[in-house]
What does this fold into?
Amino acid sequence: MNSTISAFIFYILIFFLFACKNQAAESKDLIVQDELQIRDINMLRHLSINFEINSLMLDENINDSLKRYDLDFIFSDSNTALMQKEAIDIILLRTYNYHLIRAHHGYNLNIMKTDGTKILIDRFVTLYNLDTSGPINEFFNSSYPFDIIKNDSSLLGTPKIDSLIKEINKSLNEF
It folds into this structure.
């Protein structure tokens, strides 16, 4: 009888040991995941210049990369509004230029508003104080940010933005 009780206690201890180990591993994964969230606007700007475009759908091109960024944290800092604007503008300009090169027209950004892309587009609307009650709410053509950005004096003179505006104008003149 004593050996049965000892074996029972032994199995219970083993069970708790594995249960605690699994719970500790899950907690560690949550901590590591939080630590991997990028909170640096400069890194987002780097991504904006370097993400690979191989689809007409913005969300397919960038959402996987954006999962590594804590966009809510990055966009909560009003001191970096100009840098936020630059990073988002570069992403949207590059996307529009790709649309022109591949299909000769812009696409509706509203259908691409998923995950991180939704946060980016919504932040663009906020930074430029756009009226969301009008047509932009139904059809937000990828040409629209280009029209806004090329007339925004706060970022003109920024080499990457100026370069993209020239590329887009060239694409527009080709057809």
